[in-house]
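#structure-requests
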Amino acid sequence: MQSIGQLAAGIAHEINTPIQYIGDNISFLEEGFNDLLKLNKKQDSTLTSLAVNPEQQQLLETIETLKDEIDMEMLKEEIPLAITQSGEGINRVKNIVQAMKEFSHPGKDSMELTDLNKLIESTITVCRNEWKYNAEMVTDLDSNLPTVECIAQVISQALLNIVVNASHAIAERNNENDQKGRITIQSQMVDKWAEIKISDNGCGIPEEYLTRVFEPFFTTKDVGKGTGQGLALA
């Protein structure tokens, strides 16, 4: 339950970041739009006056002054950019929420045809807060990979545990050189089998522990940092 709580906190953080700049951009759009309305109102008034008396150039000068005050050229550049960023932020939220939904409810607890590439992408998104500070995530997923009969929930759980372990291994290595590591996930067909390969450039596993890494409750981490269940479940 503690692990689930930490994961939920990470997801909340991931959602909060795009939502924050969406809010900032919407505020900017509101202010910019109000300025444009002021300019448009003054232009309409000017055009009406000029239709009666073309000699009234003062109103035209007022328009130019207002353009300078609201920085019309800046608005023309920044408003489309703000709209684009808002769209990107909304898509990020959509992808995160969709990944949460797929990870939490991946299907039945029975064998069913599953898109492994989609399962990998959802798992990466859900646990992004666990690895993004320590590593870059590189994926090489076979677009021709057919659906595979498996229990999706247990595959995603195994992937999650291995990725989190990889992130921790990289973090341990980073204590020495303070550089980001890399986690690579590949999918491919090997004969008639689907293969998922996960690698990282973390600190590695000491040779004396290799025979025990899948042993339940075995862990080399400090108390409170590891249960010894992750790789056992994988």
